């Protein structure tokens, strides 16, 4: 995909734009400006992900278009629809008082949700940075995770995974479907499915 300034992929977009937006909002959770910037930045991440991974998304999840992808995101993360509304609403002026009041209520609610999400992002980022690969047991390799742990996780419930590694049920559901979590979670997940060696 093309470059946008010094950003060339969705991972860089997440690290250089989205994470800092959430961090700033977390420091000033009542700022409408920061909430709107974070919402717009969050919304457009799906454009980057689709452009970069659409072939794989079509093959693994059966999406035919970006609209299918957006529908999936909204269905699995209801806050994403509110994010969409704020991102799109920020481009248009509406004079109707009732519509403006509704948008204001959504923005206020979503501002709190975004601030909470920002705190979660910071917590996980700190955990990733603090994790030392040298503490991982030598037997717990990429191959062991891929061939033994990952297949067994498909039989575990999303709530059990979420509780074991302190993540959302949505994220836990992705792990059940084959998403590979950060290696710091592997030992706990191995224990969940009864794999010790």
Explain this structure.
It is a single chain. The protein is mainly alpha-helical and 197 residues long. It has two domains: 121 residues, no CATH class; 60 residues, no CATH class. Helix content is 71%, strand content 0%. It has nine helices and no strands. It is globular.
| Average of per-residue pLDDT values | 81
Overall shape: globular
Radius of gyration, in Å, reads: 19 Å
Distance between the termini: 41 Å
> In terms of structural class, how would the helical and strand content be classed?
mainly alpha
Low-confidence stretches: 93-97
Question: Approximately how much helix is present in the residues?
Answer: over 70%
Tell me the β content: under 5%
SSE string: HHHHHHHHH
DSSP strand count: 0
Number of helices: 9
Could you give a short account of the major beta sheet? none
Q: What's the gist of this structure?
A:
By secondary structure, the chain is an all-alpha fold. It has helices spanning about 10-25, 30-60, 65-75, 80-90, 95-130, 140-155, 160-165, 170-175, 185-190.
Which structural traits does this protein have?
mainly alpha, 197 residues, 2 domains, 9 helices
Give the topology:
Elements lengths: L9 H18 L4 H30 L4 H11 L2 H11 L7 H34 L11 H12 L4 H8 L3 H8 L9 H7 L5
Helix pairs in contact: 1-2, 1-5, 2-4, 2-5, 4-5, 7-8
């Amino acid at each position: 995909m093309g470059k946008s300034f010094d950003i060339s992929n969705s991972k860089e977009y997440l690290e250089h734009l989205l994470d800092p937006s959430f961090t700033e909002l977390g420091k000033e959770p009542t700022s409408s400006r920061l909430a709107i910037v974070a919402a717009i930045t969050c919304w457009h991440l799906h454009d980057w992900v689709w452009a970069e991974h659409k072939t794989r998304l079509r093959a693994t999840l059966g999406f035919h278009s970006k609209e299918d992808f957006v529908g999936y995101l909204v269905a699995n993360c209801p806050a994403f629809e509110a994010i969409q509304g704020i991102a799109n609403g920020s481009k248009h002026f509406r004079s109707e008082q009732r519509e403006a009041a509704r948008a204001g209520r959504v923005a206020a609610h979503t501002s709190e949700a975004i601030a909470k999400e920002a705190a979660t992002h910071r917590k996980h980022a700190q955990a990733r940075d603090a994790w030392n690969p040298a503490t991982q047991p030598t037997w717990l390799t990429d191959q062991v995770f891929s061939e033994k742990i990952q297949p067994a996780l498909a039989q575990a419930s999303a709530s059990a995974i979420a509780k074991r590694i302190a993540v959302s049920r949505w994220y836990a559901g992705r792990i059940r479907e084959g998403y590979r979590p950060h290696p710091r979670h592997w030992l706990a997940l191995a224990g969940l499915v009864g794999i010790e060696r």
